[in-house]
């Protein structure tokens, strides 16, 4: 799939709605009231130098294991939003929130339940494409099935992008390994509450 057209945007929107209703193992566990290992914490902080370093340093000193971290300015340029995915097996979530709340530059802290939020992550990946015609068609079919985009290509490689739930990126990454991954980068997950909540 190449860069999106209006028709592809519409199709992707439909997929996004249905995709949001599919439950990952963490979502299913949360819905059943069972233990969920990875929890998402969204922190709004003052957009000042050194704040991210202080927040990350807090996690390091306390031995909290961060599975992923994403940070960017909010619509209000005075603030940034940091999204953590925390392994609660390394420390109770309440302790994580309590420690974050002690930092001066932290304005708001929210835990987003897997069943009450929409999570997305972006992957950029370069794969080998200098394969037989049959295998190349198989790669193109895989790209189309996952609604990924071909951002660039040479005679031997393709640069792809995919934005989806982390579990879907895991699946896409695993499938691409059979073709040969040259380089891969993932952003870490970002999340917002569902509007229906």
What does this protein look like?
- The chain is 35% helix and 35% strand.
- The chain has 197 residues and is α+β, with helices and mostly antiparallel strands.
- The chain has 2 domains: 91 residues, ACT-like. Chain A, domain 2 (Alpha-Beta Plaits), CATH 3.30.70.1150; 77 residues, Alpha-Beta Plaits, CATH 3.30.70.
- About 12% of the residues have low confidence.
**Percent of residues in β-strands:** 35-45%
Q: In terms of structural class, how would the helical and strand content be classed?
A: alpha+beta
The biggest beta sheet, please? 5 strands, antiparallel
Helix-residue proportion: 25-40%
List its traits.
Alpha-Beta Plaits; 2 domains; 6 helices; alpha+beta; 4-stranded antiparallel beta sheet; 5-stranded antiparallel beta sheet; 197 residues
Can I get a quick summary?
This protein has helices at 6-21, 25-31, 51-62, 93-101, 133-145, 166-176, and strands spanning 38-46, 65-73, 79-87, 106-112, 117-128, 149-153, 157-164, 181-186, 190-193.
Set down the secondary structure blueprint.
Layout (H helix, E strand, L loop, with lengths): L5 H16 L3 H7 L6 E9 L4 H12 L2 E9 L5 E9 L5 H9 L4 E7 L4 E12 L4 H13 L3 E5 L3 E8 L1 H11 L4 E6 L3 E4 L4
Antiparallel strand pairs: 1-3, 1-4, 2-3, 5-7, 5-8, 5-9, 6-7
């Amino acid at each position: 799939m190449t860069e999106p057209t209006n028709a592809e945007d519409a199709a992707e929107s439909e997929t996004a709605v249905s995709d949001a209703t599919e439950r990952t193992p963490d979502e299913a566990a949360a819905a059943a009231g069972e233990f969920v290992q990875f929890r998402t914490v969204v922190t709004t902080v003052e957009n000042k130098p050194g704040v991210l370093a202080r927040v990350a340093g807090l996690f390091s000193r306390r031995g909290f294991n961060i599975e992923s971290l994403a940070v960017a300015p909010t619509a209000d340029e005075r603030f940034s939003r940091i999204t953590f995915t925390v392994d609660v097996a390394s420390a109770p979530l309440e302790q994580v929130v309590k420690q974050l709340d002690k930092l001066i530059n932290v304005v708001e802290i929210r835990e987003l339940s897997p069943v009450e939020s929409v999570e997305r992550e972006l992957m950029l990946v370069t794969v080998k494409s200098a394969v037989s015609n049959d295998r190349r068609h198989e790669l193109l079919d895989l790209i189309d099935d996952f609604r990924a985009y071909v951002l660039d290509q040479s005679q031997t490689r393709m640069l792809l992008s995919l934005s989806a739930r982390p579990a879907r990126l895991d699946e896409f990454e695993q499938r691409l390994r059979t073709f040969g991954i040259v380089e891969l980068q993932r952003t870490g997950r970002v999340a917002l509450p569902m509007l229906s909540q």
